[in-house]
Amino acid sequence: MKKKVLYSGHSIFEDNYRVGETSTRKSTSKPRKVVRASESFLAEDRKSEGSKPRKVIRTSQTFLVENRKSETATHERRENKSSVSKIYTTEHEVHNSEIDTLRIVGQEIDNKYIIKKPIGHGGMGVIYLAKHKLLQKEYAIKFLYDKNQVYNTDDELEQRFISEASMAVELRHDNLVEVYDISKYKNHFYMVMEYIEGETIEQAIAKGKNFVEQDVIHVLHEVLSALQAIHEKGFVHRDIKPSNIMINQNGVVKVMDFGIAKDLSKSENLTQPNIIIGTLEYMSPEQIMSTDEVSFTSDIYSLGATAYYMLTGENYIEGNNMQKIRAICSGDFYIEIPGISAEFSEVLLRMMNTDKKQRFQNAQEVKEVLALLEKGRE
Fold first, then answer.
1. DSSP H helical segments within 125-251, as ranges?
2. 239 is catalytic
3. Entry pTM
4. 87: pLDDT strictly greater than 60
5. Assuming Cys at both sites, which of 83, 149, 194, 374 could form a disulfide with 178, CB separation 3.0 to 4.6 Å?
6. CA dist 116 → 8, 103, 104, 197, 264 (Å)
7. Which domain of life is it from (predicted)?
8. Is the separation of the CB atoms in 202 and 314 below 8 Å?
9. 295-311 per-position pLDDT tens digit
10. Is residue 142 a known part of a binding site?
């Protein structure tokens, strides 16, 4: 006898893992309180009722996530929501019409690459699609922003760019965007990367894609595999979030952007004192409080917050930056997601435990629990 399937909804990965199919079926499950089952397959028991994070309804004075609203309200929030806050400027906002800040489209770079068009921008630069003259192969090339266009000190920005490239070239994994080279063109540093045909999770959700539990587990498995490769080198990514996770046309997940990654074997010498670096909505408490406390479990926390966003289209905290910081660091938030199994809810709760010692301690632990969850459905 087959066991009961614990998820609901239609997977966007079902048809040859093609990304781009918007689900037409909605979960009819009512929002429910996330509770740790006494028969939980996780090792940690439920904490006492007195220590349970309290639920706060969104008002002008409060800042935590309220009950999930109707699908209409959710859609309106997605349409009207601005980009997430930055505590430290890790992304330079450029209007799409002005994305070609270097005015190099159509130019030949270092007698190798023909710049075809700008395709994006991130924390430190503009990304262009380019074609290698001899190989006739397409690459993504990230150019460091013009020094007059950013608020960071010139030296710090260049050091971070070089650091990103030096860490990325050491990594080779099917779930990581590969970096091949770094060079300079007319005093502008650039980085040659693998070109991925696909879209980020953030882009997919903005287009109305619906990720159900089995989709999220698929993505988690592949991101966790990428994190294993990163962590084995002694690096912490520090910027796992929906806009840094791509899904290509074959459904393969790719993690990208090492702009603020940390090498645990080296002391942090780029971040200025009293500056929080990263995207707040996906940062762990220890990343907010001290760069010295960041560890592999910090990436696991960020991945849990990303999974929440995939399932709901919303961040798990709201309010101004100080309100968000208080909620994250105190653990005073409540996770409530309709249409997912209690077991998977427990996985997310443990990934996002405020105490990093109570989280999964490495990516392999999470993968093993997810495998047990999936085996139980067979």
1. 154-168, 201-206, 213-232
2. yes
3. 0.74
4. no
5. 194
6. 43, 11, 9, 15, 37
7. Bacteria
8. no
9. 999 999 999 999 999 99
10. yes
Pick left, alpha or beta for residue 198 (phi over 0 → left; psi -120 to 50 → alpha; otherwise beta). Answer: left
Centroid of chain to Cα 50: 32
> Cα separations (Å) of 210 from 216, 228, 285, 312, 378?
10, 27, 29, 9, 24
Domain spans, the chain: 1-91+199-378, 96-149+153-194
CATH superfamily name and code, 1-91+199-378:
Transferase(Phosphotransferase) domain 1 (1.10.510.10)
Structure token digits, residue 378: 């067979």
Structure tokens at 26: 């909605």
What is the distance between the alpha carbons of residues 160 and 143, in angstroms, rounded to a whole number?
13
CA separation for the pair 65, 374 (Å, rounded): 29
Instruction: Identify the CA nearest to 89 among candidates 35, 160, 39.
Output: 160
Which of 287, 243, 23 has its CA nearest to residue 127? 243
Residue 117 CA to residue 97 CA, distance in Å, equals 12
First to last CA, the chain: 9
Q: Which CATH class is domain 96-149+153-194?
A: alpha beta
CA distance 121 to 124: 8
The Cβ of residue 214 has, within 10 Å, a number of other Cβ atoms equal to 22
Distance in angstroms (rounded) separating the CA atoms of residues 222 and 227: 9
Residue 254 and residue 193 in contact, taking contact as beta carbons nearer than 8 Å: no
Place of tokens 């159509």: 106
- Cβ distance 358 to 351 under 8 Å? no
The sign of the torsion formed by the CA atoms of 258, 262, 264, 268 equals positive
Instruction: Indicate the range of 36-40, 287-291, 309-313 predicted with least confidence.
Output: 36-40
Round to whole Å and give the CA distance between 81 and 73: 12
Give the position of tokens 């990208």.
Answer: 256
Read off the DSSP letter of residue 218: H
**Helix residue ranges per DSSP H, 94-195:** 154-168
Q: Is the pLDDT of residue 121 over 50?
A: yes
> Quick one: DSSP state of residue 66?
-
The helix-helix angle for 213-232 and 363-375 (nearest 10°) equals: 150
